[in-house]
Amino acid sequence: RMAVPGAAMLRRSLWLCLCLCSCPARGLRIHEYLYFQVLSPGDIRYIFTATPAKDFGGVFNTRYDQIHLVPADPPEACGELNNGVFIQDQIALVERGGCSFLSKTRVVQEHGGRAVIIADNAYDNDSFYIEMIQDSSRRTADIPALFLLGRDGYMIRRSLEQHGLPWAVISIPVNVTSIPTYEMMQPPWTFW
């Protein structure tokens, strides 16, 4: 069979339409997905999909049109952050591993972060979302915690490194129902 230009985009659009038409509206989450868009740097100006933590963390009560997504240093964010001053009032990009999802969320919260996006440490993961659950410590966290595919996290960090930038500028959450399908800029390495 000959490939038809735009066939992949059409499949994605139809899938998104089915999701939007078949699930009840609950804020900005669709099938428990939450979306954000990278505004800068331009080479990764895509809409990314993340999943909220299942039983800990807060929710987005505010939409941030332009907020910094700051990669944590060290990336696993299991203790004191070397760049904690840059995470204050921003969103931290953290890597999975080393400690629990809740511990990472609490570290970012203690540094004044507004939310945390935890990317899988399997850089080739472009389709499997891990359910982030509370650990057995009985601690809590108040800021939103999201899980991001490993490939997406890797590509964001790689772009920042290539451009010598300390952070990306993002918009979060993004209501994908308000974006015409022809304007949906999805990462080319991920199938929606």
Which structural traits does this protein have?
single chain, about 190 residues, alpha/beta, Glucose Oxidase, domain 1, 7-stranded mixed barrel, globular, disordered N terminus, Protease-associated domain-containing protein 1, PRADC1-like_PA, PA_dom_sf, PA_domain, secreted
Break the fold down into its secondary structure elements and pairings.
Blueprint: H1 7-22, E1 34-40, E2 47-52, E3 64-71, H2 84-87, E4 91-95, H3 101-110, E5 115-119, E6 145-148, H4 150-163, E7 168-172
Parallel strand pairs: 3-4, 4-5, 5-6
Antiparallel strand pairs: 1-2, 1-7, 2-6, 3-7
Cα separation of the termini:
22 Å
The name of the CATH topology is Glucose Oxidase, domain 1
Order of helices and strands: HEEEHEHEEHE
The best one-word shape is: globular
CATH class: Alpha Beta
Report helical residue fraction.
10-25%
How many extended strands?
Answer: 7
**SSE-based structural type:** alpha/beta
On the 0 to 100 scale, the average pLDDT is: 85
Q: Strand sequence of the main sheet, in spatial order?
A: 1-2-6-5-4-3-7
Poorly predicted ranges: 1-30
User: Radius of gyration over alpha carbons?
Assistant: 16 Å
CATH-defined architecture: 3-Layer(bba) Sandwich
Tally the helices.
4
Commentary on this structure:
The chain is an alpha/beta fold. The chain has a single domain (34-183), classed as Glucose Oxidase, domain 1. It is built from four helices and seven strands, in the order H-E-E-E-H-E-H-E-E-H-E. It has helices at 7-22, 84-87, 101-110, 150-163, and strands at residues 34-40, 47-52, 64-71, 91-95, 115-119, 145-148, 168-172. Strands 1-2-6-5-4-3-7 form a seven-stranded mixed β-barrel. A hairpin with a 6-residue loop joins strand 1 (34-40) and strand 2. It is globular, with a radius of gyration of 16 Å. The two termini are 22 Å apart. Mean pLDDT is 85; it is low at 1-30.
